Amino acid sequence: MSQSLQVFSRLILLLFVCLLCKQSSAEPLAKKSAKTSDGWSQQESAETDIVIMTKQLVLHPTAEPQPAMKYRLIPSSFDAIPGNASLYYLKAAGFFEQQGSRHSLSEFFSNAAKQAEAEGKTRDETRPHVWLSTPPEDLPIDDVKTYLKFTSFQVEFLREAASRRHFDLNRNLKLIDDDMFGYLLPEIQNFRELARNQSLRCRVAIAEGRVDDAIEILGQQFAMARHIGSDDFLVSGLVGNSIASMAWNDALYLLQHAQTPNLYWAFAAMPTPLIDMEQAFDVEHEFMHLQLKLLSEIDETPRSEGYWQDFIDRLLPELRSLEVDFNLPTGDPVAIRATIEKFILDAYPSAKAYLIDEQKLKPEQVEKYPTEQVVLLAMVRFLDRWRDEYYKWTLLPYWQIRTNPAFVEIEKRMQTEAQAAGLFAKPFQSWSPSFSVAAKNAQAGCERNIAMLRTIEAIRMYAAAHDSELPPSLNALDVPAAVDPFIGRLLHYERKDDHAVLKGFPVPGMQHQLILRIAK
Fold first, then answer.
1. Is the distance from CB of 108 to CB of 147 less than 8 angstroms?
2. Cα separation of 94 and 236, whole Å?
3. Which of 68, 199, 443, 470 has the fewest Cβ atoms within 10 angstroms?
4. pTM (global) more than 0.70
């Protein structure tokens, strides 16, 4: 990869933050409707920021299997095999001696590109990309199976990976001396390609009526999402959520197949949350300290001016990815050193006031510190305060933070305090750990999708016991409906004449709804 996947994805996460609270309950005055790929229709409001994605599902009444736990999508803690799944994913990605497959795939993609150019099509309209948004019944099965033969070696590796208990790429971030902001994650991008192939395998199995095979592959997709999402970086969590989203779309097709057993308890048995990003949240919390490891030396211990002069010389190499934030010139060490010294001198008055007025340090204590220590200590105190202001919200369920005023206005409050603090806080105004909260939103979206799948299966179970009727409400179900993690309550459900509407809370700017009918 020529640039950092992580840096790009952090920008995407920031976009999520900007959109997070743009919600409205007003009815739109005008709408635009369009058909999209993968069986979804899109309805865009001209008045609000909400885009409604709708999919029609025809369900077959199906009681729970006997025994009830006959099907598991992800192995239980008892059945999971001790070991690291990452090795098998790396093997499946072709990192080891798969030159023949690489050559065949390269030739396939080259021919597809030539055909697309001749037909005036875009990349997304060419094979295999277009197959990823094609319903199982419309797939050119023979062509898809020919394509999947190129990567047939993946099948056993992915089965082994899904059965393993944990996922660890042994990054040892505490020991890395390199640039954290430039840390490359090429393997994570390759795992996304694995997921696309798995989606095609699942859809082919559905089209051919191999329901048990489709269930097994679906479980492998969710296991892959969970494994990769547990990596050290939030971008890996995003990729995990993306893989889970592919699996969700495939599951919506599978649940419509007449021979699909009821998977209510299989979905209920899945880990909550499926994408556990605790490690990534913790890394994000420490990210600036991992980038600037010397920050750990900045405290209230009195040190000489000579010490801090040497400290700045040692700190300068660690600033290589933060030149823009610190407005540093490039390429001239003398000019960089002069810029830092001027910055410290100019920032001293506001830094001193911050330590005394906001941090409550004794004035006589601050007066004894060298100028460099005062400014650096104020910077670290400001950084640590605001990283915790963001991080603390990741510890709570999303429905508890979504509308909390302290959370909704957090970015605005940070910028206001930074402006009031003065020059020493300026370097961090263009950086904030708000990505953690955005990732929390993506995590909740994944849980909402699984809640919809579980509720669909509860509805199929109800229909099997009530003469193929849809339930009048979710409270009437024979087993509990799942909770929407965005609001902490049941999903929205409305029974109509011959169908029902199931939908989740709209965030951010998008709402998914399913039109459910019972097959007659």
1. yes
2. 19
3. 68
4. yes
Q: Amino acid identity of 433?
A: P
3-class SS of residue 502:
strand
Q: What tokens appear for 293 in the block? A: 């490891």
Q: Is the dihedral of CA 317, 323, 327, 333 positive or negative?
A: positive
Q: Tell me what pLDDT residue 326 has.
A: 60
Q: At 221, which helix (H) or strand (E)?
A: helix 211-229
Burial 252-282 (b: 16+ CB within 10 A, else e): bbbbbbeebbbbbbbbbbbeebbbbbebbbe
> Taking a C-beta distance cutoff of 8 angstroms, is the pair 73, 215 a contact?
yes
SS3 content of the chain, % helix, strand, coil (to 5): 60, 10, 35
Residue 203 near residue 139 (C-beta atoms within 8 A): yes
Q: 137 to each of 59, 128, 131, 190, 251, how far by Cα in Å?
A: 16, 16, 11, 28, 14
Long-range contacts of 22-30 (CB under 8 A, 24+ apart): 22/49, 22/508, 22/509, 23/49, 23/50, 23/506, 23/507, 23/508, 23/509, 24/48, 24/49, 24/50
**Distance (Å, rounded) from C-alpha 390 to C-alpha 193?**
32
Q: What are phi and psi of 54, to 5 degrees?
A: -125, 140
- Where are the alpha helices (H) located in 54-168, listed in sequence order? 86-92, 99-119, 141-149, 154-163
Residue 448, number of CB atoms within 10 A of its CB:
22
Q: What are phi and psi of 33, to 5 degrees?
A: -115, 145
Torsion angle defined by CA atoms of residues 13, 432, 185 and 192, in that order, rounded to the nearest 10 degrees = -10
Distance from first CA to last CA of the chain, Å, rounded? 52
| The pLDDT value given to residue 94 | 79
- Phi-psi sector, 240: left (phi>0), alpha (psi -120 to 50), beta: alpha
